[in-house]
Design a protein that fits this description.
This protein has a single domain, classed as Glycoside hydrolase/deacetylase (TIM Barrel, Alpha-Beta Barrel). The two termini are about 15 Å apart. The strands form 4 sheets. Strands 1, 2, 3, 4, 5 and 10 form a 6-stranded parallel sheet that branches. A two-stranded parallel ribbon has the order 6-9. A two-stranded antiparallel ribbon has the order 7-8. The chain has 9 helices and 12 strands. It is globular, with a radius of gyration of 20 Å. With about 375 residues, it is α/β, with parallel strands linked by helices.
Amino acid sequence: MRISASLTRIIGIANIVVLVIAITALVVLPTESEPTAGRTPQNAVPKASAAAKPSAGPEGRPDLPSGEPPQPITATPEFAKQVKANELGLVPIIMYHRILKKRIATIDRTPDQIRRELEGMAKQGYVPITAREFAAGDIRVPAGKFPVVLTFDDGHATHFALDAQGRPKKDTAVAIIYDVARKYPGFRPVATFWINHYPFGLQSPKEQAEAVQWLTAQGFEVANHTWAHPNLGVLPKKRVSQQIVRLERLLKKLGVPPSKTLALPFGAMPHPKKVAGSGAWDGTKYSFDAVFLAGAEPSVSPFAKGYDRGAVQRIQSNGKKGECRKWCSKYWLEWLDKHPGKRYVSDGDPQRISMPRKLQGNIAFKRGAQVNPY
């Protein structure tokens, strides 16, 4: 399932625009850089904010909605037709950065803006999955509903912290996601956090480990966004692998499983492209199921012929002003709502891939045994 050829050509230009905007935003964004003696990272949590440090894991907490996927069903062609399943449709993968009450950069969002966007998706029938699940084709969404991938770049302190009671701190990404899940029980509270070397502004290894383990215990994904957030498009191959491996080593030290997804800083693709997907440095290997861009359009289904796991599109969360008139989340969520036949609609059965018979030829060859046309 693909958007028109003319729109695809324009999107290539839009991706360049997204990259330029992101680089320009770094002038005002706190930067992630290599540790320097006596230097404190600009997005670190202030020492006085001890109450916001993560504490023990959340297992069994009754006040946190479950991030478990729904129970699967067995979808027959008749049932798939009834729910209008189309698992070759487009999937919105939304990209967020800092969450600030007063925006500084164009890519910042306020807590209210994110909350309204998530509630709007919940009302429409979107159900979050992680980037890892998307890349694996493990899309467990109730029949007739639509997957969405919520992604947060850079591991900002505004994404995750715990208050004195051990609950997600108000107006952080995790707290907002849980608020929406309580209000709309079908909205599964999961997301992907792609981090650099100071996850969530925390400096001590103990605090970092507690934070990422808390998140993964609740079903969130914590994965690789490189060590120092450089533009990989201008680095030699060895430096690209070094940036990726150093972050993988940190994640391992913090008790996180090996990353299966990578988000490219600024959406900038290294040369050669394949070094982003797999490689090695200093005796440590890495391999990802998918590499994600900054992007300007929904992603095609991971089951479709046109899917490129080495360059998965994302959509910047934003309104419809300036460059975002046709490239950001408000535009695309409205577009998908007006073009329901283009959107990924689940059949509720993760073992089958259902679609209208006229679209059967768009399925990737290796997925043929799972095909369930109607």
